[in-house]
Design goal:
Layout: E1 12-16, E2 20-26, E3 31-37, E4 41-48, E5 53-60, E6 65-74, E7 78-85, E8 105-107, H1 125-134, H2 177-182
Parallel strand pairs: 1-8
Antiparallel strand pairs: 1-2, 2-7, 3-4, 4-5, 6-7
Length: 192
């Protein structure tokens, strides 16, 4: 790192797939960051955060990446890097070349995916919505249409609500005597 005073590293989140590494540099309001993506490292320098302090870091990567095919996006709160792995295949055991813990580096669980699941794509909100829509009628693709219901809410009767035809009163869920004639006889209870 450069300069006389200590410059702290920004918080960094990471996740991976078979072919890419996702890096998220968490530094709010970072103006004009310096980012250098090399085959074996990523360099970042910028001023930001609530205290507007300088941050700088060089991340020595576990394996090589292809800088020309890597991408970067800056939002108000983060800087997103998508690093294309040189060799597609098994997941890296860790992001950095040295196997040690860094206080500034954490796993991005929102983007993390197990290696076994890597051939399946994550559901975006649109895909999730389509999936839920298709499940409306147990996956047949059609949804029940409640708008064309021929009964109106005015004529629907709830059991136990005053109904002039049966003589039932609110709170009284007993059936009328005409219903008793249609009921089957229950066998007597056995005594112990």
């Amino acid at each position: 790192m450069s300069g006389d005073a200590f410059v702290s590293p920004p918080p960094v989140l990471w996740a991976q797939r078979n072919s890419v590494i996702y890096l998220t540099i968490c530094l709010e309001d970072c103006r004009d960051p310096v980012i250098q993506i090399n085959p074996q490292s990523v360099y970042f320098r910028g001023v930001g955060g609530t205290d507007r302090k300088p941050h700088e870091i060089t991340i020595e990567l576990n394996k090589e990446i292809i800088p020309e095919q890597s991408k970067q996006f800056q939002t108000g709160r983060t800087i997103e890097l998508i690093l294309k792995k040189k060799e597609e295949g098994p997941f890296w055991p860790q992001l950095t070349k040295l196997k040690q813990r860094y206080h500034w580096l954490k796993v991005n669980f929102q983007k993390w995916k197990e290696e076994d699941d890597s051939d399946l794509e994550l559901l975006s909100e649109d895909n999730l919505e389509d999936m839920m829509r298709s499940m409306g009628d147990l996956g047949t693709g059609s949804r029940p249409n409640f708008d064309n219901d021929s009964d109106s809410d005015d004529t629907d009767k709830e059991p136990g609500i005053n109904d002039s035809n049966t003589g039932a009163k609110p709170g009284n869920n007993f059936s009328s005597s005409s219903d008793d004639e249609n009921d089957e006889e229950l066998p007597p209870l056995e005594s112990p």
